[in-house]
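As promised in the previous annual report, we have extended the structural survey to additional targets. Below is the entry for Branched-chain amino acid ABC transporter permease.
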Amino acid sequence: HRDALSLSARGLAKSFGGVSALRSADLDVPADTIHAVVGPNGSGKTTLLNTITGYVRVDSGTVHLGGRGTGRRSPHRVARAGVGRTFQTPRLLPDLSVLDNVLLGAYARERSPAVAIAAGLPRARRESAALTAEAMAYLRFVGLSDVAGQQAGALPHGKQRLLEIGRALMARPRLLLLDEPAAGLSMTELEALGRLLREIRAQGVTVVLIEHHIELVVEVADAVTVLHEGATLLSAPPATALSDDRVLDVYLGR
Ligand code: ADP
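The corresponding structure token record, generated without further manual editing, is:
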């Protein structure tokens, strides 16, 4: 069990040219919780994730991880601070094996032994065996150990999404940000994802997910933040948030 990271983002604003992607977004996520970010298309969800992870530089606003301000950190440094993420479209190396894709997740870790492995030192070989064992454990965790040797690109879409989560876990994150992990999953895979997210939380990882599948949100999320036109409309437990008149107005366009 690790020490999960809390996340607090305040007043985030970001414009791309004339387009205001975020106007005033707040997001408060206590450690050891699962938090869903929902909102209509274009409401700023992905931009919010990108600002937290350093892929996009905010115009104004602050982000704290585990109570510490992150300033304007690069994606690499945010990752080293314990923040993992997946993308809306899985970013795997399709020609490599499933196992190798998970092993690549170790590069985001502090003091990665990658250089030693490249040098082929005996100690590196032991570390390499330990890394492989760890990667296999994550593959079992996400239910993909039976396809470890297959080409990642040959996996069906749903399994590629699970593989991305396995790779993100290999970096040993304490906060994991998932951009629409349920997109394109079958009903069975969706149920498996719900179980997986709860297990990830139980292991000391705070989880933030952008999600359109309301059933999944209700099932797993401790709280929901609703974004609308780049601003936080409200944050509340799922049942409260999703029955709020303001939220229904936004979704139904009333
Ligand atoms: P969501 O994830 O909720 O669909 P996004 O964060 O992707 O919303 O986008 C919010 C708004 O910002 C949209 O109007 C989108 O077109 C715009 N936007 C996002 N990223 C960029 C970018 N790199 N350049 C220009 N406009 C962008």
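Residues 97-171 form one domain. The CA atoms of residues 24 and 150 lie 44 Å apart. These points will be discussed at the next consortium meeting with the crystallography subgroup.
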